[in-house]
Amino acid sequence: VTSHYKTPLNMKNILLTIFFLSTLNCFSQDKLIFNTKFVQSEDKWVAFEADSIGSHNFGFIYIDSQAGLTLDYAGTFKTDNNGKFIIKKKELDGSMKVRLQPNNRLVAIIPESHFSELGISKFPGWLKYYKENENSIERLYKWGFMYNGWGECAKALEFLEKANKINPDYKGLRVELGYSYNCLNQSEKAIIVLNEAIKHEPKDAYIYKELLYSQIHNNQLKEAIDTYEKVLKDVEDKTYNTENAYNILGEYFRQKNIVKFNEWITKTEIDKDKRFGPYVEKLKIALNK
User: Fold this and answer.
1) What residues pair up with 237 in beta bridges, in sequence order?
2) CA distances, 150 to each of 83, 102, 139, 284 (Å)
3) Whether pTM exceeds 0.85
4) How many domains does the chain have?
């Protein structure tokens, strides 16, 4: 005797729901979502917002060690009613490179499900030439330095911490690490690495600037003032003196300590500085409200 197992009605509904949701999820993964900045698109195929006739420019973003963020332009495509990408090759033969300025313009990462339609592979063959020595300390430091400059400090830290394992004494590495830690509100770590950096380069004004910033944001105002005084006394480079004074003033402002705030202005005369004077006046007004 044979029998057929009959799926209960409620189980059918559950299965249909799961199928619908999984289909919807696949569709959403295939859709272009314009939520990614240039600096978050290294080694990715990206599409730009459509123009007035519905065409998307697209290409591959990578980092050139000399030029920085670069787009290898690949052409344009449109999407049909079924969501398929219809490609139109670029008019000129050969490679077309476009240097990208880091900004807030957003692009879409092209889903791998559309690679075959565009005639592309995940990584272009020529990319290997830009990946040579990618684990060398020189490259790791340079990439970390660039990402810090673009405000992508967490990404920068990935490269810098790898470099630190190879040679913590590499010139500029400790202060760059300190910058990343400060950027990520990890001031305790910044203080440790920057104090070590000063042992090796005791006359570097930029290291002291980062250290002072770390101390202020680690509730070490007294230590920050000591650092400020030491720079005035012992460091010939005065580039960051006014910025250091302003950062300390900012802490008095956050503490709402009007007496110390005014004393610091009198001592440093920071209100007379062309660059910071207008900001000091704004702090005065806000503090006395």
Assistant:
1) none
2) 34, 7, 17, 32
3) no
4) 2
Compute the residue count for the chain. Answer: 289
Q: How large is the average pLDDT for residues 45-60?
A: 95
User: Letter for the amino acid at 287?
Assistant: L
> For residue 70, what are the β-bridge partners?
62, 99
What sign has the CA pseudo-torsion 220, 221, 226, 229? positive
Nearest to 140 by CA among 85, 199, 77, 65: 65
Give CA–CA dist 289/286, Å, rounded.
Answer: 5
CATH number of the domain bearing residue 195: 1.25.40.10
> Where in the sequence is the domain holding 195, given as residue range(s)?
137-287
Please give the C-alpha separations between residue 249 and each of 56, 69, 223, 257, 264, in angstroms, as whole numbers.
Answer: 49, 37, 14, 10, 7
Is 15 a domain residue? no
Residues 149, 253 within the same domain = yes
Q: Tokens 């990462």 identify what position?
A: 109
| Type of residue numbered 121 | S
pLDDT per residue over 203-254, tens digit each? 999 999 999 999 999 999 999 999 999 999 999 999 999 999 999 999 999 9
Average pLDDT over every residue of 13-23: 47
